[in-house]
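call fold(seq) -> tokens
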Amino acid sequence: MGVVIPSPLPQLNRVFDYLVPAKFQHRAVIGARVRVRFHGRLLTGIAVPIETEQHAATAPILDVKGPPVAPPALLALTRDVAVRQVGIWNDVLRAAIPPRHARVEQTLLSAGHLPDQIPVAVPRDHVAAASSETWPAWEAFLARVAAEAPQSARAALSVPWGWSWEPLLLDAVGVCLRQGRRALVIVPEARMAQTAITALQSIVPSTAVGRLTADQGPEARYRSYLRALSGQVSVVVGTRGAAFAQLPELGLMWLASDGDPAFSDPQAPYWHAREVLGLRSAAERIPLLLAGRARTPEVQRLVNIGWAKELDPPRARWRAAAPLVRAPSEWDLGRDPAALSARLPSLALETARSALSDGPLLVSVPRRGYVPVVACARCRQRAACEVCGAALALTGSSRRPACPRCGWHDAWTCSECGSADVRAVRFGSGRTAEELARAFPQVPVLRSDAEVGVLHDVPATPAVVVATPGAEPSVLGRFPAALLLDGDVQLAAPRLRAPEEALYRWCRVVSLVRPDGAVIVVADPHASAVQALVRADPTGWAVAELAQREAAGLPPAVRFIALEGPAAAVAEVAQGVLGRCTGLPEPWGPVDLGDRERLLLRLSYQRSSEVVAALAAIQRERGMRRAPVVIIRVDPSAID
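ret:
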């Protein structure tokens, strides 16, 4: 029997042979946790099949811990992810399988075995808010999900901002369940998971819906994993790690808002939930729906090449469901005497006053805190910490600048002109709330951010709600209006994906506004992301953005692989790849990152397998020599 050993060394990223004693013949099955001795240490690995003949095994398995937790489909998936990301198989297995919890096994297992499957719950009839909002492409997708034989129906859907996404989810999951197959729903955050679970419990019993989210404790998460694996639930709703969750007779996978940064695993080998589900759909022929309020260039590329079908509703219905979005133009600013000095132009103030007579006003700002960035009041030089170099910030209206990274708060003087006075460069949620409290003294001002706490919902009464991205609360009946402040700050960030990130955040805010409401975005009205918001056309933006990246040779039109580490080590790996894979474009870089360097390899999708295999071989060879570590990121989320 083969065993995957938990080791971070690339030269040990392979399967090792072990003997199975007679007393473990019935328990040491594929996918079980087994205890083995490896180089004098007791380790717990995963039992896997041996695909090729290796040397004769001499060491025996010492024990078997719990039931099999990695079925063959999961082993194949995690192996594919590890190969694609030039990572270590065990690292992916560790992300896919929650840690063992003995008390859960004692209460859930029967005679050491997982319980028998429970039949798929038949959904109750329900009246969906979007049931009347149907269109040919959506009906065709549901028909493919409902087909008797599993089909690789893959589709992309931009949900109109004025529509609730829950009824569409219920329609798709309901069709899947009626065919006797189970569903997997992946969302970016725990709040959205709870919303999906509440909606699903309206059509199936609560016991038929499982939850696999990062905020669960070890015991609850392991219990949910085993219940899903044994078929005790019909639907699993989870966050990033649940993309690996195994359900018998899986008939639908739904990924919501794939552009959310929470879907990128920050630990090696840096996989993305969208890629994991894409590999599953292709290998196991499971229908996959990539849904969201905005469209990422990555998903648009899949539509362009025919890998996924376009499901967007007709443009007329898209626009009819969206609130009115306006960006103050030059004409509006020309009529505003305070336009050059005020954060809130007159159009935004008028919209706010009108909305507050009908309910709460949502104000979105990109940063928390009071004044997160300050500069010299005389020469405009950015104020930096004298200890660590981080940007200084103000935490209150009467305090001196302080460093949010190391806590330095001594008297600051400008290194250029010697002035000790500072001015605000960026405004945070605290300062914004203070300004709005002065502008609207008759209504309460609420904050929702990581500094003071996130509000889950607010009453439908007049109030100003200042929130940072991702911390926007909900309100019964939605907000009558919203203000998107400091848009130029988000668009001007020195990152390739800055417009994409800004549009994703703005679409999330707009979806919280009533279809008859209003949204004011304070940003350059000519920016492509702002125009996409005004025209209610995030899909059109993705099409144009992808075309520009294709012309410039930027991802996702081409693939990038980032190499990070000591300068000599990065150069050695790059030379090795270019020597083995001739004809590749010249690398980008290297770029000095302080204690290390980064170099970017560009390659076409057709040559991905060749380059990835070469990198894996180089990593193994360098590991055998104990060479300095080089971090490899395939399709990094940021290349700047």
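The chain has 19 helices and 26 strands.
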